[in-house]
Amino acid sequence: MKKSDSVRNARSARRAKAKAPRANRKVDNVRRLQLVEGGRQGAKPRRRVSSPPARQSHAVPPEIRRRRRLATLVLVLLAAGLIAYILTGPILKVMDTRRNRAKAEAQLAEEQSRTQALQDKKELETTEEYLEGKARENGYVKPGEIPIIVLDGEDSEESSDAPDGGNTTSENQSPSP
Question: 3-19 and 22-37 are packed helices; what angle lies between their axes, rounded to 10 degrees?
Fold first, then answer.
């Protein structure tokens, strides 16, 4: 073997190393070491390959599979129950708040309508015509007017309908002769 052949082999090994993935680099390093030390040329390096442990087939008996499924189902149901229990409080509070809000809004609408009615009444009672009418009902007159007071206006109609000709007597009073 010539020196130039060994150099060519070393160069080709370097090129292959650059192109090879990481797993093959270890093999290339071993090959290069063999070339430098004068090992066998062209021979593949021996690799110790440990085979993975033989996979033992552990078939799970159907009874154990059923128990596992049952345990998983129970855990899922417990988790769902716990989540429902935790969320029940806030959900009930939200529903109660909505109910109270609806009641409060109805009460507010009622109070607003009542306030509007009172404001309308206030506006009516502060007008000149209303105040004048109330004053006349209480016996007030404008300056220069003559007040007329009817004393027996309604009583005269009732007394004429009476059977004794308008003379009404009470038990305490005696009839006049």
Answer: 170
